[in-house]
Amino acid sequence: MKKRHIEETKTILREALVAHHPRIAIASSFSPEDNVLIDLALGLNPASRVFAIDTGRLNEETYETAEAIRRRYSLRIEWVFPSAESVQALEREKGLFSFKESSAARYECCGIRKVEPLSRALEGLDAWITGRRQGQGITRASLASIETDSVHGGITKYNPLAVWTAEHIRAYTEIHRLPVNRLVGQGYPSIGCAPCTRAISSGEDIRAGRWWWESPDHKECGLHLK
Ligand code: SF4
What we know:
Layout: H1 3-20, E1 24-27, H2 32-44, E2 49-53, H3 60-73, E3 78-80, H4 84-94, H5 103-122, E4 127-129, E5 146-149, E6 155-158, H6 166-175
Parallel strand pairs: 1-2, 1-4, 2-3, 4-6
Antiparallel strand pairs: 5-6
């Protein structure tokens, strides 16, 4: 892979960490992208913060990857959970799979399990860092490396891997022997909650396995809305 991508990414990360630490954190779902980001950030500042949202519906393989990352870096992952009362009410009133019934029901579940916990995770932060890339589908095609997150009070949102390709991520992961979610090798290039993620076939869009029953231009969960 081209060294230039890594150096440019390190520059963005270094400036972000210098400007904002400890009021900045990486949002991780332990995807290959997020693991690259964690490796780079901890190399620049071993005290870099990482938070993750445990929606309660994650794959076992995702928890295994999180554990591998935790052990590798002796990292204290800042897990954030949905409101127990909200999940309890949702499941009592609408069952365990309401998100399959309509887009509105899906956004309701993502709202409770992801969006509200994210808001709490971002409280007190001046900035956050994501592993999103432009190549991850049409909702991310024009992604900038640095944005203002108007949904969360105008804090800064860094996407240092915006221009990285899947091949760049693969190469970095192999060279640095980073942990990889076992599902990636089973056709899951994008992994979210277990019931809302499926494997994709060759030639399908990278996020085709996320909420596959919905239109491609709506494949965001509310975490990255503008
Ligand atoms: S991805 Fe699926 S299970 Fe997870 S929060 Fe969204 S709708 Fe609910």
